[in-house]
Amino acid sequence: MSNVDFDNFSEDYEEILFKNLSFFSRDINYFAEYKIDLIEKTIRFKPKNILEYGCGIGRNVPYLKKEFPESNIYGYDPSFKSLSYALKKYNYLNNLDKAQIDKYLNFFDLIICSGVYHHIKKNEREKTTREIFELAKNEGVFYIFEHNPYNLVTRRLVERCIYDKGVELMTLSTSLRVTKL
Questions:
Q1: Does some domain include residue 1?
Q2: In this predicted model, what pLDDT tens digit does every residue of 150-162 receive, in sequence order?
Q3: For residue 166, is it left (φ>0), alpha (ψ between -120 and 50) or beta?
Q4: How many domains does the chain have?
């Protein structure tokens, strides 16, 4: 999926993130909370089952629980250590076990990918998106949050971030290909 092995960063992820974002705000949770608040304001139903695909250490999980307290929240991440960290920290987080993926086909009302796609190799993005769509109910909603590749500050942050080495930000044309599937 990615050139970066996030197992190497699971314990230091937040510290690295803080160093990269601290010039914006001392509260690095702002961005996670903002995204989930945006979902809550724009979604037109109360989702029963939510999946954060690429949940990492679970930075969005408490905000999902806050905005959707009655929902079942699931996490998936290819980084075993990151996912283990999230599952341990948030006892209400359920593990989407890829070994039992058939159990989750057409299951989720809401799927979120936040800062994930630039870590997926360009030639694997469409395949990954199709796999994610198979997990969504027909009337399910899929939110993708990605870095703005046209913003110079964003590009600089990505260039400096140790766990963003070798990533390719999604351009508008790439984003449109993924969302038209």
A1: no
A2: 666 655 665 665 5
A3: left
A4: 1
